[in-house]
């Protein structure tokens, strides 16, 4: 499994389409993560405290960290736009969102690998076919994966785990952690994998990933634990799988990081609620 797949395979996110079709006038968006696709027309994206972004050709904007903003159609003709909310699980927020800048802007050219999915999405929006709503949301998830891959391959990410997989030394560490998050990794072992001194490794990892190695490992363990809990694995079993000797240790980590016990988190998850936002988390991928 490649490094990007190794990271994304452990984490969950949801995309839910909240606008599709022609955009006239102004549409406001809240503080949840948001993805916008412009097929034609011209729009202005306004974020308070930031310079406006003019989108006048097929393009994509991702605001992963959630910022209130607006889109305004400013061309002679209504713009064709698809917008989707993007939400992440708690562990994924720590690992994935930190890997992304506040805003990712990509132009979609005919040669771009994103263009086929964009065209498919808009075809679904403007055609009345069976399963349309499900298809659009699933395509939104696929498109989100493509955006993450495109940004990683182009070197557009400057911090976080996704940025680290382009680093010739730290990517080996990320790969090792994701292959066995339950391993009792020491700083010496990780520094050896990176072929760095302890101090140089600790400094480089914190600078690029945005977390200490220990915090990153803890978040990765949480992500794996959440997936196992959803498969109805007992807490003691899950604890052992992610590197803790007793279930009580996993309970302490959950309460420290998420504010709830593993069982409470699972109950909330099954009710369709995110402990991060308290909002419905339908359509979770992965």
TrEMBL record:
Instruction: Tell me the SMART domains matching this sequence.
Output: HTH_ARAC (SM00342)
Residue span, HTH araC/xylS-type domain: 171-268
* Gene3D superfamilies reported in the protein's UniProt record: Homeodomain-like
Give one Pfam hit by family name.
HTH_18
Q: Does the keyword Transcription regulation apply?
A: yes
UniProt keyword annotation of Transcription present? yes
Q: Which PROSITE patterns match?
A: HTH_ARAC_FAMILY_2
**Keywords in alphabetical order:** DNA-binding, Transcription, Transcription regulation
Q: Name one GO molecular function term.
A: DNA-binding transcription factor activity
What is the official name of this protein in its record?
Answer: HTH araC/xylS-type domain-containing protein
